[in-house]
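explain this:
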Amino acid sequence: MGRFPVTLFLTLRSLLRPVAFGVAGAIFDANGRVLLVQQTYAKGWRLPGGAIDHGEAPEKGVRRELREELGLSGGRVRLFGLYSRKLWWLTHMVALYVIEDGAIDFHPNREVRAIRWDHPDQPPSGTTPATLRRLAELASGAQQDDEW
């Protein structure tokens, strides 16, 4: 009986204070431009990414997401920063990775309708506020804020 109350407590706590973990990738080309996407289900230009699978390591998750959505292969991956945001009743954690020297073989799909390459200090009109903050950080080379 000693383990049951702990398990019940942890289950209830996870229902009342759930956490979602996502990943995003700042994919850079040889000219220092970053890849931005337009998703099919959200407005604005943003960094690509998504949710990690249950038990999946974040770096594997970002590679999988970017392979599935953009056809990313290869490249060097490094963690840039960890961020949080409130999303309804959830705490949403996001790990942002920088990817260099990767290859993209993009075809529009059910999640991403369009891509474009821009210099981080010259984002296009319609870029989301969170993406503008991340691009400014990427241009400066350091995480400035912990909120996505």
About this structure: The first strand starts at residue 19 and ends at 28. The radius of gyration is 17 Å. The chain is about 25% helix and 40% strand. The CA atoms of residues 21 and 140 lie 25 Å apart.
